[in-house]
Amino acid sequence: MPPGSADTPLTLDALTPAWRPAVVPGTVATMLRQENGGELDLERVPDLDAVDWWYRCHASAELPAAGERVVLCFDGLATLADVWVNGSPVLNSENMFIRHEVDITGLVGVDTDIVIRFRSLRAALDSRRPRPRWRTKLVEHQQLRWHRTTLLGRMPGWSPPVRAVGPWRAVRLERRTLCEIVAGDLVPSSDATTNVVRAAVTVRPIGSTTIRGATLVVGDQRVALTVSSPDGLSGDVVISGTLTHPMAERWWPHTHGAQPRYDARVVVQTSGGDTEIGFGAIGFRQISADRSNDGFAVAINGTPVFCRGACWTTPDVVSLSAPASTYRALLVLARDAGMNMIRVGGTMVYESDAFYDLCDELGILVWQDFMFANMDYPAADSAFATAVGREVDDVLARLSRHPSLAVLCGNSEVEQQTAMLGMDRELWTNSIFSELLPSACAVGASGIPYLPSSPTGGVLPFHVDVGVSHYFGVGAYLRPLDDARRSNVRFTSECLGFSNVPEPAMVDALLPNGESAFHHPRWKARVPRDHGPGWDFEDVRDHYLVELFGVDPMRLRYADIQRYLALSRIVTAEVMARTIGEWRRAGSTCRGAIVWFFQDLWAGAGWGVVDSTGRPKAAYYGLKRAMQPVAVAITDEGANGLYAHVANDRSDELHAVLDVAMLRGASTIVVSKSTRIVVPGRGSSSIAVDDVVGGFHDSAYAFRFGPPGHDAVIVTLRDHSGAVLSEAVQFTATRSTARTDDVSVSAHARQLSAEVVEIVVKASRFADSVAIDCGDYIADDNYFHIAPGTERTVIARAARSGAKFTGFVQPLNSHDGVRIVMSNADVASGAPAG
Questions:
Q1: What is the C-alpha to C-alpha distance for residues 284 and 518, in angstroms, rounded to an integer?
Q2: Which ranges of 421-467 does DSSP label H, i.e. alpha helix?
Q3: Residue 231's pLDDT is what?
Q4: Cα separation of 348 and 401, whole Å?
Q5: Residue 643 above 80 pLDDT?
Q6: How far is Cα of residue 632 from the mean position of the Cα atoms in its chain?
Q7: Bridge partners of residue 117, in order along the sequence
Q8: Quick one: which of 99, 76, 80 has its CA closest to 169?
Q9: How far is CA 624 from CA 432, 576, 708, in A?
Q10: Which domains does the chain have, with CATH numbers?
Q11: Which of 406, 402, 190, 408 is nearest to 301 (CA)?
């Protein structure tokens, strides 16, 4: 409806609107997608902020019983919402991040009408407000700073123009008896020797119910709590106390240990019987931040953790949510890649409870921004500050119990934005980030490290050698790969943003009928870019295509677009893997690296290392090799030759064998030597390649006494059984892009179960960046190298139920690929697999 055309359900009915079925929880865009058979053209979504949207629900229910309360609960309304029940106004909300509960006991009838109006945000943006002291190019409208809503859909060049409007979180009608929880949570904490749970829960008796006592239960431990009535007028009862759990095991990120958790609940004894308040599974871990020597590092249970992972987006930009199964699939991908931290940035949304529960279960730390980014927020406005305070309290009450919660951050890039605009230092922050948020966090999430902004610290907040940075030296700023060391990065909560090319099937789906990528309007519309500069992130990728492969991107696109796309997939994977390996080596100043970002918001060559459907890209596999708990990397130390660096996050000392092979051409092994190494638990070690091979071979090709004696160095880390733990390859000079007919690759598969296939790829000669395309299956490894005369075993799992396995293997240095031959197609599945 046009903005303001109706101001009550009665005046709306007079306009005889046409009602349409809607999904709740969901957004208006979810409804539009549903109407279109599950598809929505993200490039042609109308401006959903431009009009008023009305939702209506008719509920039939029994009248409230004596002593029963009926409560209407809203977990999230985006964004300017008014609610009526049976014609009576009951709620006004102007913050999509706040949960609401409304007592409608006196309004409920046998037939109950619930009506929600979502007022036009566009009309509100156009109303007169004080101007910001500075402007940002990130968003489409400067006055978004006044409104507590997500910036997704409102950032040109970053996300599809799908604006969040509607009941995006659950709406529930609850009937409550005996008592209800008003406020509070359980807060687990640990120090060097003790595990403690502190309970502070306020409950409200219903009707004539009296509270007689309460018990806190955590796993097999229980303790009686104190019950008091500090405010006799309201009747609210405060339940408080502390439980010490001496036998509880510590929770660790998955790279460093296990994730034991304990069911926690408060049992309230009332005059009408017992009632339980469940708080889910909690974990015990000690957390701290080391800010010494101008750095930033996270320690869990007293152990420094190299935090690595990616910035989270949302599984579905249309609904801003997803089923728990979708969250699980994505977070399992992150865990399997060796990622132990996910950052939920200030341009996104606070995630669902399922997300945080899964991070607890899977051992993935969460860096949580509050939802502020790049703008001059009106901190001096008392109403705005009050609303922010309520939002923060609500968020902390929901998240503080989670052992995965590792860092709380006031905003994304507010300090950087103002500093880059040349503003005075006193304008870099405001009282929200310097006073309100840290004070609230100290109470609601005691012990969790807080940062006012990301990035922050140093002479300028975007300098990377102090505090927390957003590092794009390797990346948007086109610096050479060794800049990752020379810049002395300390902790980068955003880094390595590239336009990562998706798999061929995604390219074909995006550009049907054989249309070519790169200059196609749809392709370019989905390449990420900052608003203003005359370049995009595909130009950034092309720069490193020249650096690594020595090819002219334009000439290559003219001659062979598929070859261009194949090389483009590899280049971002290798640049990311090399940089992470550099930062994890012994002696590095870096203590954390969070890649920008995990999943694309829509189909295309976006920043995501996983595409919008949840399928990994080549960049994902590059990171997966570099981020594993036990990983080997190679660095070029110039005249000192190549060095191998082994990282070991496990608690046990690593006893392994390090193989070094120097390869000339595709099949000649010039040198092959091994050495035994010992790497301390939760430590790292470095060893010179020259020390392993013994003698001078100019491993880094630094002295250049004639042509190089080898083209690649392969370093393989094995356990004492011979199983490969990790492998890295360093090419001596500019990477060859030549193709041959003589790579001699074969691939055979066997079905392990209905939805799991084992693939064995063999090569008689060196196979470069072997790409596996297995249709509706997802391989656990891809784009790997195979040394001459060796093989690689890969497990592929069905991406959907009933998927049919078909497979094709293509080395980068081969003209032709080979089909994967299935040896027992009908085993377990009962049907041919391909």
A1: 49
A2: 431, 437-444
A3: 67
A4: 22
A5: yes
A6: 25
A7: 54, 82
A8: 76
A9: 38, 10, 30
A10: 9-174 (2.60.120.260), 177-282 (2.60.40.10), 287-627 (3.20.20.80), 630-731 (2.60.40.10), 745-822 (2.60.40.10)
A11: 190
- Summarize pLDDT for 138-196 with one digit per residue, the tens: 998 999 999 999 999 999 888 999 999 999 999 999 999 999 999 888 899 998 889 99
**Amino acid identity of 397?**
A
pLDDT tens, position by position, 428-456: 999 999 999 999 999 999 999 999 999 99
Q: Is 126 helix (H, G, I), strand (E, B) or coil?
A: helix
- Give tens-digit pLDDT for 248-301: 999 999 999 999 999 999 999 999 999 999 999 999 999 999 999 999 999 999
Q: Could you give the 3-state DSSP secondary structure of residue 575?
A: helix
Region 89-117: what's the mean pLDDT?
95
pTM score, whole prediction = 0.96
**CA distances in angstroms from 694 to 413, 633, 688, 689, listed in the order given:** 49, 20, 10, 8
C-alpha dist (Å) from residue 604 to 542, 586, 706 = 16, 37, 44
Whether residue 312 contacts residue 327, with contact meaning beta carbons closer than 8 Å, is answered with no
DSSP for 690-743? HHHH-S---TT--S-SSS-S-SEEEEEEE-TTS-EEEEEEEESSSPP---BS--
Compute the distance between CA of residue 76 and CA of residue 399 in angstroms, rounded to an integer.
16
Please tell me the total number of residues recorded for the chain in this structure.
Answer: 834
Q: CA 674 to CA 99: how far, in whole Å?
A: 60
- Token pair 């994967």 is found at 820
Asked if 249 and 258 count as a contact pair (C-beta separation under 8 A), the reply is: yes
CB neighbour list of residue 29: distance below 8 Å, 6 or more residues apart? 40, 45, 48, 162, 163, 164, 165, 166, 318, 319
Report whether 655 contacts 596 (CB < 8 A).
Answer: no
Q: What is the DSSP letter of 436?
A: I
